[in-house]
Design goal:
Elements (H helix, E strand, L loop, with lengths): L1 H23 L8 E6 L7 H16 L4 E6 L10 H7 L4 E3 L14 H5 L9 H9 L1 H6 L3 E3 L8 E6 L14 E3 L5 H6 L3 E3 L6 H6 L5 E4 L3 H4 L8 E8 L6 E4 H6 L2 H7 L2 H30 L2 E4 L2 H24 L4 H15 L1
Parallel strand pairs: 1-2, 1-3, 6-7, 6-8, 9-11
Antiparallel strand pairs: 3-10, 4-10, 5-8, 5-9
Helix pairs in contact: 2-12, 13-14
Amino acid sequence: MKKKVLALLLTLVMIFTFASCGSDDSQAGQDSYNLKFSIAGSEAIPMNQLWQEYADKITEATDGQVEFTFYFDSTLLEANSAYAQLVSGIADIGDIHRYASDGFNILEKWKGLTMGTPVEAQVDMAKQLFEDFPELQEEISGVHSLAFAFDGGTYNLLTTDTPVESVDDMKGLVIWCEADFNDFIEGLGATPVNTPWSEVYSSLQKNMYDGLLIAAETLESSNFAEVCSYVTMIDLNYLAAPGHFMNLDTWNSLPEDIQAVFNDPEIVGFIEDEREAISHSTDADSIAWAQENYGTTVIELDDATRQEFIDVLNESKKNIAAEFDSQGLPGTELLEAIEKYSKEYE
């Protein structure tokens, strides 16, 4: 009799135990995902901080099913082969907004081709161009695009010891830039270099370069105010584009409800809108900070002098378009569309 009572009690305990487990763990039976997110720049850069906020929103919207591990300063994907390494699965998500030649043609020089466009057109025009030109869609078909939130911003010239007050002052200088701008820098009479972002500060510090073409917010976020004494305000904006991509195998492994979170217009809109706003708002603050803390000299150009830079830029864009034409790509057609849409924003 005692044995029967004991067996009954044990059975009841097991039943309540299983019931308790089921009620406490609402995620039981659901897979969890920890995605490796490779970033080219440092954690201090405002753009990269926004992507961490974006990741937090994904984690919250999936009730913790999706989490992220961030790797900054190209410590996971190499800067010059990031796309190929992302496709191979070394990372789940890659910051490929500094396009390298592996995997890209038109997008490799996207910034150089779209520089000089109106600030107000930054995201909307880019989306229109991707809709109009299937060749652009084809270039990102091997990955899943998260948003049109790669930079899109205004670039200026930061120089170490040489004040640049005219196009003539550029002659003979060695200027770091993204590969998109090689044609422009060469047109100005300078020599472009495209070493990995993580090496730029030390190269400036060692006087290997005379300066760089970049957003002025990096005076503070990347400490360039410590090594660059001058900022020449050429104020040239370029269009946004997809630049943060997910490996396709990773994307296809996610269930539809989680894919829907990544595609949620509110979440995509957050990173696109915030990135668009911050790409301009932080420049003035960083310049003021650099002036106060390092005595940085800001060189404002008159309209005629700035137009000289724009004239060189426009010639470089024609050269880029002609190069694409020779490859059977719609270079001139794309450039004409950019000019047409730009006028609509004026």
